[in-house]
Structure formats: C-alpha cells, structure tokens
Fold each of these.
Amino acid sequence: MSKPATEARLAAAAKGFTQVIGRGNAHIITKDPSTGKCCYDGQVGGGWHYNGDQETDTAWQAGTAPWNWQMVKANYNVFALSQFNQGQIIKWVDPGSGQYVTFQPMALQWTNNLNQIQQISMPQSVAAQVSDDILYWPAAYGSGRNFRYQASPLRLNKQLIIDSPSALPTTTYDTLELNFIIAVSSGVNIMVNGAAWNKKSTKDTVNSIAFQLPGGAVLWSFAVPTAYDSSGTIEGSITGSMRLKKRGNSLYVSVRFSKSWIDTAVFPIVIDPTVDYQVGASGNDCMWDPYGDFFSTYPNLNMGGRSKFAVRFASVTIPDGATIDTSYLSFRYYSSSGTPPVCTLSAEDAANPSQITSCSDGASRTLTTNNIEITSPTSGGWWNSDSLNTIIDELMSYSYASGSAMQFIVVDTLNSSYGAVSSYDHYSGYAPKLHIEYTEASTDLEPALIGGKLIFGGLTLNGLVGR
C-alpha cells in the first residue's frame, strides 16, 4: 500500500465522507457535508503525510540520471540504480537536512567465529523488476537467491529471499552473513550501542544502529535484523546481529544469522535488515505468550497459537461526547495452521496507553469490560473485525479529542491452532488499521424560543418564559 492516506480518503469518500477536516502522521479524518457525520481512519505506523498535508506515495517512479528510479513523495527520499551489481545502488536522503547514506550490496557468504569465509555469491548482473513500491531482483545472488527493496511510508525493507535449502551450498560454518558497503555524508555519526563508531574498529551489536546528526537527532536507523520463514509460527522467526567493520577504504555492515535456525526453517525464508526513518513505529504492535517469549519486531501476529497480541494507534482524534456509529479493526491475512480458535478482543482501559514492552507488562494492563469475539480466516487479504462500538463507547469516558492512543489486545485460549495477520514489521502497508465513523455532539448552545418554550442546547425549559 504505497498511498495509505490517499486510499483511506478515497474509501471514505465513496461512503460520502468527502471533506478532509484533519490529517496526522498515521491518520486522516473526513466529514460527510450532507449529514455532518465524521470518519476516522488510522493505522499502526506512520508517515501518511509529508510536507504538512501532502499524501505520501512510495511507488517507485522513473529517476533522473544517474538514477534509474526514485521515491520522493514521502518524509524521506530514495534513489536507485537498476543493475544489482552496479555499486552503490541505493541512496537514502533526508530532505530536510540533505544528509544521506548509500548502500552497495556485497557478498553473501558462510562464516564462523574465526572469521573464515565460504563465499556463496557476489551480486549478479540482474536488472530490477518494478512493481509499485517494490524493486525486485530475481536471482540477485544466483539461482533461488532473490533480493528486493520495498519502500513504505517510514521504512525501506531490504529483503533477501531464499527459495529452498538447495539454494544454499553445504558448509561446516555456522553463520550466514549478508554484507553491504555503506557510505554516509559528513554530518552523520554512526551510533552503536549508544556510542559513536570510530569507523575503524570492528563492532558487533544485537541492537539497532542509529545514524545521528551532531545535534543528536536520529535521521534513520538499521532496525534489529530479523529472519523469518514461511510457517507463520513464533518458532519460525529469529533475531540476528550486525557487525560494523572497515576493510580498506570502505565501511561495511554485515547482517548475520545462525545456520542452526536455517536448517530447521520452512522455506522460502526472508532475511530482513530493514532501515527505519526516524526510528519508525515498530513496537506499536507486539505479541507475547505464557512462556515468557515477547516479540515486538515479529512479521505477524497470531490469533491463537498460545499467544496474545496488542495493536496501538498512537493518535486517535474523536471529539468528546461523540456518538460512535460504526467501528472495526482491519487486518491483513498472513498465514494459518489448523482451525483458528475464537479469541477475545478488548481495549486497554486507559486514557493514553503506552507501548507494551514485555510479557509481564502485557499481563499488567487493565482491559475494558466490553469485548468481542474474533476469529481469523484461513485465507484471503484484508478482513474486518465485528463492531467495536461497545468497546469504544466505554473508552469515550476518556478524552480523545487531543489525539490520545488507543490500544487493542487480542487474547487466545491457549489453542495450538492459529490464524496469523501481518504486523508493521512485515510491511507497514499491511499493518493493522482502525476505522471509526462518528456523529459529533450538538454544539448549539444558543437559546431559542419555539412554541412558547425555551430550547437551550437541546434541553427544554418549561414555565420560565415571561417571568
């Protein structure tokens, strides 16, 4: 979904909500001028607008030499070359500061703790196939080893897709390593584990790597790298590590994953060293289970499978006293196993809930009294929950006119079957969405004399006229 605000606006307009009355980082509010009713559409994530009120469009467009492709209708700009082995094929630019980072795909290889190397492939001479917001290079690292860049409103997903176990040569080494040469503009510091990298020594980290201006502002970051397989299960995902190093005059970042996970994975598998703009919104959806496992960067959210998950909408703007007419959550189907169970969907009973950061934190949250049953389908694309009206009516005792957060929590009954939906970290365009249609409370506070009765804000006062 390369144009989230546009698509939400057009869908609302088709129902009569043709007038835009509010815009935000991850929402748009429209109004039906004939009825006065309003509509809020929001999504986990952000980056719906740039330059104030311009609607983001992350589709790749023809570029200007030397670039073959560009994406410049968002809060960040990206420029790309078509040939995968052409060198620094991606340039990421912050339009406000002009600072940039470039990426050059390098070797895919096996390695071990002695830094011995068994090369699998260097980048091949393959031209990009372009589809909307995706640049895709089939066989970018040889047969069965494909690569794509997918631009979304707050992040650039860099994904190596390995089709089958036979696409990887046998080895005695224990780590798969994907390398990039990076170059940054002179005003950027590379921050590792909270400290500036000296661009000389080798640094390993299991945390994100931030690109920071001298004043401290973080422009973008390497998110913690994740690999995931096609099973859709919690066990089908693994967090990797990153290594920064200097070789000759070049700076390298290496993304590393354990071969032991690859040996048991369900193929195809995806190696995902994502780049976030201004740290993005990862963590506004998360999942945890009763065994102490917590996931805030997992590609899917399971309805079932012994899991609970939360989706948080950071800025929900509904005027005090509004009547909720229609409301639901929208999810994008990801995968399923067995017959998905009936789960319970509630909201967190709080005025402005924060992100959940651990299993114990999730267990400590107070839920609304009202809830609904929810069951994932076993196929398809986008689908909607049943009505959330009673839940949101309960939440309306808090003030959402200023744009406070709403957080919804789905609880499983410890069933091993599940239906999975896409998370923000799978692809931000497929992150969960919230839709609310509402009627504002009457604002007519001027008294009127009608039929000998005084009408004040809808309240009739008898016996006072003429005294």
Amino acid sequence: MSDRRTALVTGASSGIGEAFARLLAKDGYRVVLVARSVEKLSTLASELGNGTLTLSVDLSEADAPNRVADTSGPVDVLINNAGHGDFGPFASADPTKLRSMMELNMVSLTMLARNVLPSMVAQGQGRILNVASTAAFQPGPLMAVYYATKAYVLSFTEALAEELRGTGVTATALCPGPTASGFQQAAAMESSKLVAGRKMPSAADVARYGYRAMQRGEVVAIHGLRNKALAASVRFSPRPVVRRMVHKMQEAG
C-alpha cells in the first residue's frame, strides 16, 4: 500500500473545490475528488493524474458520508467544500431544496469530519478545512437558511479546533465573501445587489488563501480586507441594524 498522503475534497468538480484539488495534487497528495458530476470529476482526475480517485456522490443523501469514508479510507487532509445556497424569501422557498441544503451544508460536513478524525488523532497529525462564508457572521434575510448553515459551520469548526488543540490535528474555517465560482448562478442570486456588477475574487485566489491558512493551522480565515472589516463591524453594530443592512444589500437591484 502506498504511503503517500491522501486528501479528500468535496464539491471538487468546479470552483473553490477544484482549485483546492489542484493545489493538493501539486503538493504531492493523492486526491480523492467527491462531487455529483461524473464527467467533470473524470476530466479533472485525468488532468491531476497520480492516482486521483473520483467518487460521484450526492452528499445530501443520509448514507453518503459513510460511503465516501468506506471508499477513501483514512485521509490526511479533509476539505469540506460542498454546499449550495438559495435566494429569495423563506416563505416561498422550495422545502425539498431547503432540506437538501441543510443536509449538504451541515450534516454531511459534520459526519465526514467525524469519520476522518479518529485516524487523524491516532496518528497525531491531520488537517480539516471547512468552507464557511462571511455569511456566517450575521443573519441573512433573503438567504436565511444558507446564512444559518454557514453560521453552524463556523461555530462547529471553532469548537472542534479547541477540542483538537495539542493533538497535532487542526481545524480551519475558511470564510470567503462572494467569489467567482459559479455559486451565484446556482443559487439564482445574480440580481442581488451583493454580487450584481461587482468584481469578485477568483476561486483560485480564495483557495490559495485558505490553503495557506490551513497549513498554518489558523482557526478562522477570512479572505480579503473588506470582508475582514465587515465581519468585525458586525460585533459592534446593533442587531436590528445588521439585519436591515444585510436585507438591503441582498435584495435585487
């Protein structure tokens, strides 16, 4: 059996996940790519080479994290990147899509971490990076459930990092702002003033920033000076003001 380091990346078929996969492969990791798109995974795997493994799985399904763990085996790095959003008033949201979002953004992320952690702790080394968002720092009218899921990811990761302190295993929450990754189209939020007409950082830039933060063992990594300032300002602003400000930023232009 190969003694090469193994990295598992979810949501690896495009955007930030794909960029992470490329960084890991460049650093010599055997990469396990997880996403739903067979064709995109196969294309990326052929580019990366070096024993790249692909798993076409819908992580919103209840047994998916266990199936992924059974196939991948122990890993040295876990990048929990898979997730999706939805734009619009909560009262008119599709219940099926909301449930799928919660399963994917929170439950699968949590269970994948739970599956890989025992072997990491036993070895005294390992890294987990969970992709949260600057959405984690405040409520998000018009994307209420998405923002709430990212708040969960941030809180969970911070607690996990503290539990793991001194074990040799680290947990990092990457908190990017709007990114040119295809997320906005998938969430049908192109008309939102938060992203419409705005120049956004590339998925590759965000992944590089997160990758370096993970290697340093940072717990919370907020990409971009503007995003850092916005996240910090929320702590000193009255909650009603924050809610209304986000609502105004989110609404269609």
Amino acid sequence: MLNKLREFMRGRYGSDQLNLALIITAFVVSLANGFARSLVLYGIQILLVLFAVYRMLSKKIQTRLRENRAFLRVCEKIKGFFTSVSTRVRDRKTHAYKKCPRCGAKLRLPRTRGEHGVKCPRCGTQFRVKIR
C-alpha cells in the first residue's frame, strides 16, 4: 500500500509553506465557525482545504514553486515590518529613527538632544536633523 502511495505521489508537488499556511488558516476558520455556525465560513474552510489538496497533488511543479516564492516574499515583508517595529520600540530610549529626505532610508541615530548634521550611508546626502 505504501509503495502504491509513493508511486501515486511521484512527479507531484507535495507540501510546502503555502500549503501549511492554507491548512492552518482552514483550521482557524473551522474554530471560528464552531462559534459562528456560518455557511459562508464553512464554504471558505472547504475551499481552503481543497486548494491545499489541489496544490499537493498538482504536477505543475514550476507554477507551485512560483506561488510559494511569492507567498514567502510577502511573509518576509510582514516579518521585516514587525522586526523593525520591535527594534524601534526596544531602542526608543537610546536611539532616534529618522528618514533620509532623498532616498527614504531609515537612519538609527543616538538620542542626543539638539540639531545634528547627518550623512546618509545609502545615498551620501548630508542633511540636518533635530532630535528632541
């Protein structure tokens, strides 16, 4: 039986991070539907599971890889945002964060009161910054 399953899955995509996210989302929707008892939530849950199964059994491996890469790029942007916010909150007493007026890069500056001259390491622009 196990050999037949292996033979069936040969050449198919299998599971990845996007499939895991789809299944976890379906589980969360299922929990929410336990309280709400909504046909709409039930339909969403079924669609999520069916899409995850479709992706696992798909033989279009390159397409599934592109979908997963796009998903991971979005996840990295979200993770980067929360990491940035966490760092800013942690350093709020010792450092100030200012944006470069030319390229928009975030600069981490020591929190020393007054007006200071700053040079952006990315684009080389020199500008004045007032820190309170």
